[in-house]
Amino acid sequence: MTPKMKATPCCGQQHHHQEAVDQVLAHLPQEDLLYDLAELFKIFGDSTRIKILYVLFERELCVCDIAQLLGMTQSAVSHQLRILKANSLVKFRRQGKTVFYSLDDDHVRSILALGMEHIQEE
Amino acid sequence: MTPKMKATPCCGQQHHHQEAVDQVLAHLPQEDLLYDLAELFKIFGDSTRIKILYVLFERELCVCDIAQLLGMTQSAVSHQLRILKANSLVKFRRQGKTVFYSLDDDHVRSILALGMEHIQEE
DNA sequence: TGAACACATGAACAGTTGTTCATATGTTTG
DNA sequence: CAAACATATGAACAACTGTTCATGTGTTCA
């Protein structure tokens, strides 16, 4: 990360702050990891996808059932399932013409649950 | 949720599916809760904000230190801190001219940790 | 094999979002 | 009080994202 700040050294240099900056830098995860993490949460950050995940919380469902439950186009649902699949949040199995989707692992459930806890606190 | 699907009843009506749909509907959280949940994850879904959160993981920092660490404008950081604050992900305390930010509660740490686990699995 | 069905996907358009730039607010110090 | 400093905020613009519409792929069944 190259600083883009101006010559203005912002809150002087003779603070406790330089020590703080150094300490943080020592423990900061790699930039690309943080980027991937943001990408992951971006997937959860859409109400359509959240609804799909919650609808799959208890059991697998086929695409058109999801669409019916959510009152959405099959196409829209399919596009979102594609994204969820690409990020390993859902898996699928094919049975004849229909494709059944389900949550991929328990991380998904845990993350959803933690998020729920947070918003229900305030 | 009002179904917007066409008259095409999509994958017939005489499937196992109707039963599935009913079961899911019985356990589905309220629509506005799901919406709020998506809004929460949307906050985590930006790499700048993720970086800010991680930079605050171990200790509080002032705005300009965060900006320096991230190589970003003070303004950009301030805008993001505003969003994080509004969603109770960070809190702040004022000390003279400088404002120190820190993570608001441990949910934030837990959610970040779970996300990290997920992306490091594949 | 061909029609019907369930699902996938590409292009395009509208709405949303993050950054920049300029400026405002609030605090300290002389 | 005025100047300096740390931070906050409003407007605007570029980039991204989700939906729609049209069409493509793959499977079943007559």
Percent strand of chain A equals: 5-15%
Mean pLDDT of chain A equals: 87
Q: Tell how many strands the DSSP assignment of chain A holds.
A: 3
CATH class of the domain at 38-120 in chain A equals Mainly Alpha
By helix and strand content of chain A, what is the structural category?
mainly alpha
> What is the succession of H and E elements of chain A?
HHHEHHEEH
How would you describe the oligomerization state of the chains in this entry? homodimer
Number of helices of chain A: 6
Poorly predicted residue ranges of chain A: 1-9
Q: From the alpha carbons, calculate the radius of gyration of chain A and give it in angstroms.
A: 21 Å
Helix content of chain A: 55-70%
- CATH homolog superfamily of the domain at 38-120 in chain A: Winged helix-like DNA-binding domain superfamily/Winged helix DNA-binding domain
CATH topology of the domain at 38-120 in chain A: Arc Repressor Mutant, subunit A
Major sheet characteristics of chain A: 3 strands, antiparallel
Question: Would you summarize the structure shown here?
Answer:
The structure is a homodimer of 122-residue chains. Helix content of chain A is 57%, strand content 11%. With 122 residues, chain A is mostly helical.
What can you tell me about this protein's structure?
2 copies of one chain form a homodimer. Helices cover 57% and strands 11% of the residues of chain A. With 122 residues, chain A is mainly alpha-helical. Chain A has a domain at 38-120: Arc Repressor Mutant, subunit A (Orthogonal Bundle), CATH 1.10.10.10. Chain A has a 3-stranded antiparallel sheet. In chain A, β2 and β3 (98-103) form a beta hairpin. In chain A, α4 (63-70) packs across α5 (74-86). Chain A is elongated and about 60 Å long. In chain A, 34% of the residues are buried. The model of chain A is unreliable at 1-9 (pLDDT under 50). Chains A and B meet through α1, α2, α3, β1 and α4 of A and α1, α2, α3, β1 and α4 of B. Chain A binds a DNA duplex (30 and 30 nucleotides) through α5.
